[in-house]
From TrEMBL:
It is found in: Cell outer membrane. Residues 1-20 form the signal peptide. Gene3D superfamilies: Outer membrane efflux proteins (OEP). It comes from Flectobacillus roseus. InterPro entries: TolC-like (IPR051906). This is TolC family protein. Residues 329-388 form a coiled coil. SUPFAM superfamilies: Outer membrane efflux proteins (OEP). Keywords: Cell outer membrane, Coiled coil, Membrane, Signal, Transmembrane, Transmembrane beta strand.
Length: 440
């Protein structure tokens, strides 16, 4: 019993400790969360792939060398009769080459016009943008989870304080009942009822306190802040921060919606790439090299090397390639239709969520307004009861009951504000403004 009362006193005096802020939790969480680091690595990979795609327009340089032995030298039939004074149909078989041969040279190709390659570069940039949205989505979901846990801790703290106050009051009442029972002024059943009420309050307190500890352990998992600090320090409120959220939030700026738009853009670009694969390409190609011919192994034989070079335009027009899909464009268009349908479903769902969220906010705001009015009335009643107590018209126990009702109403008002706070947070998440709001 004494240990529980000590915990209760610590909870009621919790505001004396240092405060933890939601921004501190977010900052620590983003630094240490492996999923965020993974998304950052994926973005870096996408950026490197984008640079790799752009490098395809750099000159293509190839160096080739071979030294080979020709056991059988190729023979060509030459129409020697055409070189005589009177042309005839005479031919002669002549072997061209030597037993040993060296070939060395450099080939350079500079692409000038390649629509398919340009389209793939655009694809890589879109993929990079998609990876960036994935990173933002991972950050947004993680920030939402931290803020949700932080807000839940604030709510559990209020519930723990309320149940702690109830336990203190029921303990005082139980002690008073015990004294009266020993004096013979009340029945044993009345004292038993007081003990039952106190035990129920202790059970409610232990449940609320256990929920609070579990949520702080979860926040430790999310943020990597030491559990000792999360258990000992108090938590700064965030309701004033979230209440500045505009009421006309829409989902068009949300990351999920932008991901749909990026996916559509990528599919359209892939369709364009597929169409450009059958467009002509233009480039400049050049070659410089030399060949050696010898009858025996002698790589350095003088006067046995013969130069060779050329430079000119290279034009290619693909006609048919069996290694390429014959209906890829149709597949991509079907995928585009699927994405468009998913986007429309997402829009309908978000419209529904925004309307429900606005309705919940309106309800909670009205409940808070009623709670504030009730608190004013309870305070008026308390002033009246205090005046009656001074004149001897009221017992102290009745005044305690009124003070208890006022304290409970104040805690319930704070709980309503925390619920409103969570609803504002949900609206930020639905509209896609949560990450931007907290990063600012």
């Amino acid at each position: 019993m004494k240990s529980i009362l000590i915990i209760i006193c610590l909870l009621l005096a919790h505001s004396m400790y240092a405060q933890i802020t939601v921004n501190e939790c977010i900052e620590n969480g983003l630094k240490h969360r492996p999923s965020i680091k993974t998304a950052q690595a994926d973005l870096a990979v996408a950026a490197l792939k984008s640079l790799d795609a752009q490098s395809k327009f750099l000159p293509q340089i190839a160096l080739a060398y071979e030294y080979r032995y020709n056991p059988i030298i190729a023979t060509q039939v030459v129409p020697t009769g055409l070189f005589s004074g009177t042309p005839t149909t005479e031919t002669q078989a002549i072997r061209f080459g030597s037993n040993w041969q060296q070939n060395a040279g450099v080939t350079v190709y500079q692409p000038l016009i390649d629509l398919s390659l340009k389209s793939k570069i655009k694809e890589s940039k879109i993929n990079e943008a998609s990876a960036n949205w994935d990173l933002k989505k991972a950050e947004e979901d993680f920030v939402f989870e931290i803020v949700k846990s932080y807000s839940q801790i604030l709510l559990y703290q209020l519930q723990s304080q309320e149940s702690a106050s109830d336990s203190v009051r029921s303990y005082i009442s139980m002690a008073m009942m015990e004294a009266k029972f020993k004096e013979g002024k009340i029945l044993k059943t009345e004292w038993n009822t007081a003990k039952i009420n106190h035990n129920n309050n202790l059970s409610a307190f232990q449940k609320a306190f256990s929920n609070l500890i579990n949520e702080k352990i979860y926040l430790n998992y999310l943020t990597n802040i030491s559990l000792e600090k999360l258990l000992a320090d108090s938590y700064a409120p965030i309701n004033d921060f979230l209440e500045n959220t505009p009421n006309n939030s829409t989902f068009e700026s949300s990351i999920d919606f932008q991901k749909f738009l990026t996916k559509e853009q990528l599919l359209n670009q892939q369709i364009q790439t597929e169409q450009n694969q059958y467009r002509p390409t233009l480039g400049v190609q050049g070659y410089i090299g030399a060949n050696q011919y010898t009858q025996s192994i002698n790589p350095f034989l003088a006067n046995s090397w013969f130069g060779n070079s050329y430079v000119g335009l290279s034009v290619k027009l693909p006609i048919f390639a069996p290694d390429k899909s014959i209906n890829l464009s149709k597949q991509l268009k079907k995928q585009l239709t699927v994405v468009e349908n998913q986007k429309e479903e997402y829009k309908s769902q978000k419209n529904k969520d925004i309307l429900q969220n606005s309705n919940t906010i309106e309800r909670l705001q009205k409940e808070i307004a009623f709670a504030e009015k009730n608190i004013v009335l309870l305070k008026e009643n308390l002033d009246i009861y205090q005046a009656r107590l001074q004149t001897g018209q009221l017992e102290a126990s009745e005044l305690n009951t009124q003070e208890s009702a006022l304290q409970k109403a104040l805690v319930q008002q704070l709980q309503l504000k925390e619920q409103l706070n969570k609803t504002f947070m949900d609206r930020l998440y639905i509209s896609g403004n949560l990450l931007e709001k907290f990063k600012k």
